[in-house]
Amino acid sequence: LQKxxxxxxxxxxxxxxxxxxxxxxAEKSKIETEMKNEMQQKSQRKAELTENEKPAAVVAxxxxxxxxxxxxxxxxxxxxxxxxYITLPRxxxxxxxxxxxxxxxxxxxxxxKNLNGKSYSMTGNNLLxxxxxxxxxEKVKTDTVLVLCRKKAENTRWDYLTQVEKECKEKEKPxxxxxxxxxxxLMNVLKKIYEDGDDDMKRTINKAWVESxxxxxxxxxxx
Length: 223
What we know:
The chain is α+β, with helices and mostly antiparallel strands. It has helices spanning 2-14, 18-50, 163-172, 182-196, 199-217; strands at 67-69, 73-77, 81-87, 99-104, 107-115, 118-121, 131-141, 144-151.
């Protein structure tokens, strides 16, 4: 991803046509987002492995005033599980029975009662693929509820958490295919622009490409 980002920056620096610059700028943002997500996932996995769980504190019962919709969460996956991380400060201090998650084959619905005088809920409907209700569970960690959705088909990768997310992302995609890997996606971007462009655009792309390759061959990069 880092090498792809460097390549895009070199080409963006040389490009002068607005259409070319717009396409390269979009590709640059996509690669930077992938790098950020990868770093976040690594941090979450590291925190899960090193965290020392604290004993649940005994707190006085509180009557929840109203229900808040959970919006702060992230997700990750392993060969067997899709893992949803829900951040709720001091959730580890409430009684275990106050944290409930209802599972169906295509949904998970967490509910946290009596946390800071409120209840917190989330509806995870229309999951991308079926899950095993019996194999799914939840764990309460420091300031976090970890929802473990057991994949019905193990060793399969989920590109999205829900079907809705998949449809939204696919609508945002350009007509060319970028689902393989970042390098191939970048090549398809340039190929599409080149094929649809006029002579001036093709000369601009050729010039930027040759100069970027020569610069990299000499080791003369600014990154």
